[in-house]
Amino acid sequence: MKSVIGYVIGESDTLQATLLLKQSLRVGEYIVLEYLGKKVLGLITSVIVGSPLFDEKTNDIKTIEQIKNMDKVPVYMKAKVKLLLDLNRQSVPDQPPLPLTVARMAEEDELRTFASNGDIEIGTLIGTNVEVRIDANALFRHLAILAATGAGKSNTVAILSSRIADLGGTVLIFDYHGEYVNSDMKKMKPIAPIINPLHLTVDEFAKLAYINERKAHIQFRLLRKTFNEIKNNVREKKISKTDLTPDTFIEVFEKKLEDIADKEHGDYKKRVDEVKDKVEDFIDRYRQMISFAFDDITQQIVKGAINVVDMTEIGDDTATDAIMSHYLRRILQSRKDYKNKGRGLEFPIIVTIEEAHVFLSGKTLTKEWASKIAREGRKFGVGLIIVSQRPRGIDENILSQMTNKIILRIVEPTDQKYVLEASDNLSQDLVNSLPSLDVGEALIVGNLTRIPLMVKIDKFEGKLGGGTPKFFTKPENGESWEI
After folding, report:
1. What pLDDT, on the 0 to 100 scale, is given for residue 295?
2. Which positions ≥6 away from 479 have C-beta within 8 Å?
3. Does 483 score more than 70 pLDDT?
4. 3-state helix, strand, coil in the chain (%, to 5)
5. Which letter does DSSP use for residue 482 in this model?
6. Residue 350 and residue 367: Cα distance in Å, rounded?
7. What is the DSSP letter of 290?
8. Higher confidence at residue 467 or residue 365?
């Protein structure tokens, strides 16, 4: 008989049971219950310790002091167990465990049968040496990486991206804080955000020019008509795009704008100078990023590499939103073109959006195209990874379409509740375990793995900008601290 760690007590069902423990366990460890000819795997989701001599209702301090002076105070430890898998049948349990069913620790060979069958090694099961390997193809059903600040999101992104690239897969990261472009990840290719205005949509151009359709509809209409006419003229070769520079574009734009305004009435002519100023500001603001000779952003992407778009060069969330949506739109369309017409982006790609709560809420352009990738990307080989420390700030429809989730430590109850409500494959008992996770530990749910797994994510061994820097340093000798 293998070592007994506890017994089932109280009422159980096919989903969960309660153990009275003989030894200390922690959240995230795996146990096995053997009953009715079955071997059922369970996950410890909570642990409590108490004494039969007193509880939180005890209010007599003398009683407490008398108990404290006893030679041995009786203490109990109980654990909640989520029942996951019938190891014999390799299916969900169909009968609850009987009272007094013996519990033992799961053996590593048993754990490997369901934890180590994937393509990408990402870490080890908590408290074991069992490697966890996830299904690479399941990433095209999309993934949310969620955690409180400092819990290990950047490390998880670095490990996952590196392992995908090691398999020959292609990753593109929108690097909001410069964490990855300044790292030493192997196969990392930095990409400077380049804008060819002729490839922008009207909405993207208007956003970069700070013209709001609802608040300045006349300016928006003038911009739209002028911009569309210029693009048509380039398409018809009435304007040579090789002759366009930021300065000549302003000249062409302003001439077209005046011609269009002359045909309008009322307030339109009064708004011409306002549109001119905003387009000139757009050119001046992004002059170093503008290239009319630049063909297509998808041609910057290197197959089998970690392509990192350095968004720190933009420095403005409104502009970042427009540029990010432009990349997402072109990537999805290019993959559609390749599948339907045989031309376009020739290889599948996994796209990662950092600080997703900033760009996937409200009426952002990025939210629109991320939603389309979440709905359609799987068919065309575009996977989406969203990363956030504020899950409740992400559009619920997008979060719910992230079939897979890697959830590190989350303490905030409103975030826990939001993630639970947006997830079909997450249960309350698993959510309750999240505050108990240490830095770098995560709950993985979805198609990436066969059953929910508690994992210690591998540590990225290299330079990465996602950690918390030390601003105060105590010198070895001397009394003052260095800042």
Report:
1. 77
2. none
3. no
4. 40, 20, 40
5. B
6. 17
7. B
8. 365
